[in-house]
Structure formats: C-alpha cells, structure tokens
Amino acid sequence: AVAANAGNSVAIWSRNPQVVDDINNQHENALYLKGAALDPTIRATTDAKDLENADLLLLVTPSQHLRSVITPIKPLIDPDVPLVLCAKGVEISSGLLMSEMLEEVLPKNPLAVLSGPTFAIEVARDLPTAVTLACADAALGRKLANTLGSRAFRIYHSTDPVGAEIGGAVKNVIAIACGIVDGRQLGDNARAALITRGLSEIVQLGIAKGARRETLMGLAGMGDLTLTCTATQSRNYALGKALGSGEKLADYLKGRITVAEGLGSSKSVSALARKLQIDMPICNAICDVLHHQADIDQTIADLLARPQKAEF
Ligand SMILES: NC(=O)C1=CN([C@@H]2O[C@H](COP(=O)(O)OP(=O)(O)OC[C@H]3O[C@@H](n4cnc5c(N)ncnc54)[C@H](O)[C@@H]3O)[C@@H](O)[C@H]2O)C=CC1
Ligand SMILES: O=C(CO)COP(=O)(O)O
C-alpha cells in the first residue's frame, strides 16, 4: 500500500490463492489486513515468476520462514535488484539476523532494512507514520526512501542496517515482557522499568553486533519499543498480557494465523546473548517462560532478586 501510494506499480506474491483473489477482486486483504482498502492498481499473484521484472523487492515474510520462502525463488531474482527487509526477527535455526541470512542466500543483492513504529493497519490507512530506512550504501538508501516515502509515510534514511534490525527484533521480546507484567497487574512503574532496561539490553546486543547507539535511540529502536510495549493492538504485547493473565501459551496460539515474532526471537536472541556473553536478563526470562515452562511468578521474583548494579 505504501509503495503504491508513492506512485509505484505494485505486485504482491502470496502463497494463498484466497488472499490473491481478495486483493485482485475486492481490493482488500480480508484475511490478514481486514478493513484497509487497497489501491485497485495493486495486483496479487500466486506465481513467483511475476516478480521477475521487479525493480525492487520488499521482503515481508515472517522471519522464521523467510529463508524457506526465498530459497526456491532465488533463480528468479536478478542479483542487482535491491531487497528491502521488513521482517523483524532473528532466525532460530542459525542465530543469524535476517541480513546475515540473506547474505548467505542472495549475497549479491543490495539490502536495506525498513523498520520503525508501524502497525500495519495504520500504515495501510495512510495515517502519519515515521520510519527508518537503513542501507549501507547511502546513495541507494536515499533513492529507496524517495521511492517509498510519501506525505504520511515519512522515511528517515540511515546507513546502519544492523542497528535497525536489532531494534526491530528485540523490541518484540520486551513487548511480551511488558504484556506479562500488565497481565499480572504489576503497575505502570514496572512497565516503564522494563522498557528502559529492555532498551539497555537492545543497545548492548546492538553494539556487540556493530550497530550504532543512535540508531537504537531512534525510530527503529526506542520508537518501535515504545509503540509495541504500550499498545494493546501489538500482537507481542497481547500474547504477553494473555500469559500474564493466566492463559496457557498453547491455548492462546490455537487457531491464530498471525505472527508474534517475539515468541521465536526470544529463543534466538537469548542464544545470541549467551554466545556473545551479553547480560540480557529480560530476554532470557521471556525465553524461559515461553520455551522452558518457567513459572511466571518465580521468574519475576528471580529478576527482582538480582544483585544491585550500576545503571550504565
Ligand atoms: N503487522 C505489523 O504491524 C507489522 C509487521 N512487521 C513484520 O512483518 C513480518 C510479517 O508480519 P505480518 O505481515 O504482520 O504477518 P501476519 O501476522 O499478518 O501474517 C502472517 C504471515 O505469515 C505467513 N506465513 C505463515 N506461515 C508461513 C510459512 N510457513 N511460510 C511462509 N509464510 C508463512 C502467512 O501467509 C501470512 O502472510 C513480521 O516479521 C512482522 O514482525 C513489521 C512491522 C509491522
Ligand atoms: O512491529 C510492529 C509495529 O512496529 C508490530 O508489532 P506486533 O507484531 O507486536 O503487532
């Protein structure tokens, strides 16, 4: 919708024929983005061959599936075509950032990361939104920002894709923590503490991976963290809130077709922190609760019982 709004000719490749049919005939993605009228010029297709002549590819598949979606269509992708990564997560199977995984699968294609506080439904309704577009090649980054930006979709360019990626991936884990604390009714102070200490974990991991601190203080870091940790429409926050309110994870996930990336990324981020020897107690705690059946109250008690330490 953003690309079409900025005057581009847009095709969406989907594996789901119903989605393709809805977009082409109703101009709405009723299954995943109900209530957003799409520009009638947007075409959808189930045939990846239709992407062959694209000038630019936006990668919007959830992070744990991006490798398996992109690998079979590799021969269709011209190595000069820039890729704009929109997924927010760290691959569980490899511990790689999406940019690192793409470097393995499509090493020649230039890559940019588009991230920031962007609930999809608000973006699709053309409500005012600001984002980071990060590309190591500054000139290409500016060009992509011009191609995709519009009055309501304000793009700030950056040359720190790793920072933009880390901010987007880790904030989802912290948002689950905030949801849990709100579900347990532990108060606004506790949520503010989690956001701030969560940002500290994001910054430490980011710096270790070569990111710049200012990126993590910007839209793709602090901006997205604030949004996701405080808004009930966040899938990650909502998952945490359900768990904090006593619901079982398996029951909550039953029948859900949308993604809460923090579920998978809690595991990969925690493993990455261990590997890089970074102290990330909140992410580790969320990994324990989601993947190792840790008791929520005991986990909170353990976090609070940690020895006092210097803030920075
Ligand atoms: N929805 C939002 O507000 C925003 C989402 N993102 C990111 O965009 C990425 C995609 O999220 P959404 O568009 O929200 O997805 P969604 O939650 O609306 O839908 C899930 C998508 O995953 C696909 N999918 C599920 N299993 C799959 C598999 N095995 N192989 C391939 N595809 C599979 C489904 O077809 C569907 O398109 C995520 O990384 C998310 O963090 C980023 C910014 C905002
Ligand atoms: O990344 C997002 C907003 O920037 C979407 O957050 P949720 O996946 O938690 O809904």
Question: Could you please describe the fold and organization of this structure?
Answer:
- With 312 residues, the protein is of the alpha/beta class.
- The longest helix has 23 residues, at 161-183.
- Strand 4 (83-85), helix 4 and strand 5 (111-115) form a beta-alpha-beta unit.
- The termini are far apart.
- Helix 7 (161-183) runs parallel beside helix 10 and helix 8 runs antiparallel to helix 10 (219-230).
- It has helices spanning 2-5, 17-26, 63-70, 98-105, 120-124, 138-148, 161-183, 188-208, 213-216, 219-230, 235-244, 249-253, 261-276, 281-291, 296-304, and strands spanning 11-13, 43-45, 57-59, 83-85, 111-115, 129-135, 153-158.
- The protein has a 5-stranded mixed β-sheet with strand order 3-4-5-6-7, sandwiched between helices.
- The protein is globular, with a radius of gyration of 19 Å.
- It folds into 2 domains: 2-161, NAD(P)-binding Rossmann-like Domain (Rossmann fold, 3-Layer(aba) Sandwich); 163-304, N-(1-d-carboxylethyl)-l-norvaline Dehydrogenase, domain 2 (Orthogonal Bundle), CATH 1.10.1040.10.
- The mean pLDDT is 98.
- The site of 1,4-dihydronicotinamide adenine dinucleotide has 18 residues, from helix 3.
- It is found in: Cytoplasm.
- Catalyzes the reduction of the glycolytic intermediate dihydroxyacetone phosphate (DHAP) to sn-glycerol 3-phosphate (G3P), the key precursor for phospholipid synthesis.
- Keywords: Cytoplasm, Lipid biosynthesis, Lipid metabolism, NAD, NADP, Nucleotide-binding, Oxidoreductase, Phospholipid biosynthesis, Phospholipid metabolism, Signal.
- Residues 160-300 form the Glycerol-3-phosphate dehydrogenase NAD-dependent C-terminal domain.
- Sn-glycerol 3-phosphate binds at residues 88, 116, 118, 171, 224, 234-236.
